[in-house]
Amino acid sequence: PPPPPPTTAAAAPAAAAPVHAASAAAPAAARASEVGSRYSPAVRRLAAEHKIDLSQLTGSGAGGRVTREDVLAFVGSRSAAPAALVASPSAEEEEEPSGVLFSPTPLRSRTPAPAAPVLQAAPAAPPPTPAAAASAPAPAGTDAGGRPGWADEELLPLTAMRRTIAERMAQSKREIPHAWMMTEADVTGLDRLREHVRAEFQRREGFDLTYFPFFIKVAIAAIHEFPAVNGHWTDQGVMVRRRINVGMAVGLEDGLIVPVIRGADGLSIAGIARAARDLAMRAQAGKLQPDDVQGGTITLNNTGTFGSIASMPIIPPGQAGIVTMERVVRRPAVVGDGGIAVRSLVNICCSFDHRVLDGLQIGRFMKRVREGLEAYAPGDSVYSHGRPGDALGHRRGGGGLAAQARLAEGAPPRQRHLPRG
Known about the structure:
This protein is 37% helix and 16% strand. The C terminus is likely disordered. The protein is built from twelve helices and 14 strands. The strands form four sheets. Strands 4, 7, 10, 11, 12, 13 and 14 form a seven-stranded mixed sheet that branches. A three-stranded antiparallel sheet has the order 1-3-2, with no helix packed on it. Strands 5-6 form a two-stranded antiparallel sheet. The chain is elongated and about 120 Å long. The chain is of the alpha+beta class.
């Protein structure tokens, strides 16, 4: 059908305009009439249904006529646009562009000539209120407080103790070439000795007697034979210390601390037990003094209390070694000439500074510790102040002064025939 005639309201502005504008209005109206005649009823119906300005479409029909397929294609492309971008309103809906991302021509000067749809950014969301911000989930990569982490993680602030432990352990691994050795000892005799004196010790001292002071005593005896274990590395040479101050690690809920048993080589087994218990209790109560954690020359740990059967400890800076006593376990072992018996066995582990000690020296030291542990038997006194190596060496004929004399002459320690697991 022919296009409707121009309305009076549309003609009035043209009449009031300058002469050259009025003369341009007639051709524009003619072009609009010519374009409008190209739209079929089906095309106009689809355009009205989807609110499409047909003048923005490029026709694919004869003579550039817009077809039904052109309208459907435009509808499909518009619905597939990203959610963040929306079709720009027409000139009748908005005279000034706002946030336009791409516009080939200004909206005011568009002609009925076909043009691509204009896309603009979606309106920015209003800033969240304080209540909404508090309930909003944390961004990926941060915890609820905005700190690094994920939603299912929690960042624990460093305590002064944790930071000190981290710095000291990192320093040790960075500066000390760690090497490691483990040996197994049959402590069936020690087990029987401990059970023999345990009740009387409990009555006399007021606390239980553990394996740890027996281990410290034989380790001190072995240090007397191999003093380099009690030394530390310097750029001028290996500094060997004559005093033996034993560090013992005490685990706390928020970290670890190593108080020191000073002059441990002058104490009996019972004296070592008392000193170790006092330091452990004061450490757990937070009552240690600065002097209690300084001056250690070697560290001995009782990791067996946690059920551990092997560990690889880190050497404290300023020392050459750290030795651990693991859990005492009872299991069948070959004894004598091939018999099978249930024995009490324990692993002794040692991390050592390979700048100070080699496998030969630390192997002999560990062998001496093993022999000392295996030499305990019912009847030994826990209150004797003598070196256990001396007493055990005289009784067993393999350690103590006799062993030192053989080592001084360059001979290896005598092999002792003890039950082994």
